[in-house]
Design a protein that fits this description.
- This is DUF5995 family protein.
- This protein is mostly helical and 258 residues long.
- The chain has one domain.
- 78% of the residues lie in helices and 0% in strands.
- The chain is built from eleven helices and no strands.
- It is globular.
- The C terminus is likely disordered.
């Protein structure tokens, strides 16, 4: 069996090749992928350093998660009509948007729509009935919160340098808000991802029909959330006020995505 480091190194290499292609083309999708690749590198380092309980499981999950992004981007290049709604919104966003907004769109699609589905791939039906194992999986899921939050200042600086606006102006908008709000937004969205994963696990146990319905509902909510970021206003303040994630229970989310 491949080591966690080998698994993650493989997907990092594929991301690197894709990023070079996007940079040569001047494709705005490069902004999200550059950020995502650095996050994946940090996750691999956390696994290698034993900062999670099950590095092998974390690596398999991280690769499954990355594959969903790569598949969506492949489809966008080849058959755009087949791309899931959240990614259609993100990939079709105007090229002239600030880099940080392209990153936010990609993060929103990937976390809200792809992450529960990637967890479904690495949590078996027997696993979900094992409270000890599921407790470990949840702790590893949340162990990455700190890894990602620690990258926020660095990523903010990357985005400031990539911005079309004057760096001093964007720096005043981005850095204080992202540092103040990122931990809360990340914690909230990843808690919702974990809750949504349990909804989808129950749907899978009920059969293909319920799982397809849950996936369609997740796509609908996630698409609306990504689209919401494109409404003219400052999206960072909007996220700080209204949150980042979606909730797959048909409850208050309908009113919040407005």
């Amino acid at each position: 069996m491949d080591s966690p480091e080998h698994l993650i190194d493989g997907v990092l290499a594929r991301m690197g090749e894709r990023l070079e292609e996007l940079e040569r083309a001047g494709d705005p999708a490069r902004h999200f992928l550059a950020t995502y690749r650095r996050v994946t590198l940090a996750v691999g380092e956390a696994a290698a350093q034993g900062r999670v309980e099950d590095p092998s499981w974390l690596a398999r999950w991280d690769v499954a998660f990355a594959e969903l992004y790569l598949q969506a981007h492949d489809a966008w290049q080849q058959e755009p009509a087949t791309v899931p709604g959240p990614w259609r919104e993100a990939f079709s966003a105007p090229a002239g948007l600030e880099p940080y907004l392209h990153v936010l769109l990609g993060m929103n699609a990937h976390i809200n729509f792809d992450m529960p589905q990637s967890l479904l791939q690495v949590v078996g039906e027997r696993d979900r009935h094992d409270p000890v194992l599921m407790g470990s999986r949840e702790r590893d899921h949340h162990a990455l919160d700190g890894v990602i939050v620690a990258l926020v200042p660095q990523e903010s600086r990357h985005l400031v340098r990539a911005a079309a606006a004057a760096p001093g102006v964007l720096d005043r908008l981005l850095l204080p808000l992202s540092r103040a709000a990122s931990a809360r937004l990340l914690r909230e969205s990843r808690e919702q991802v974990w809750a949504n994963t349990h909804v989808m696990l129950r749907a899978r146990a009920a059969g293909p029909g319920p799982l397809a319905a849950a996936t369609a509902r997740l796509e609908e909510l996630s698409t609306r959330r990504v689209h919401d970021l494109l409404v003219p206003r400052h999206p960072l303040y909007h996220l700080a006020r209204h949150g980042f994630g979606v909730r797959l229970d048909g409850g208050a989310e309908d009113e919040r995505v407005a």
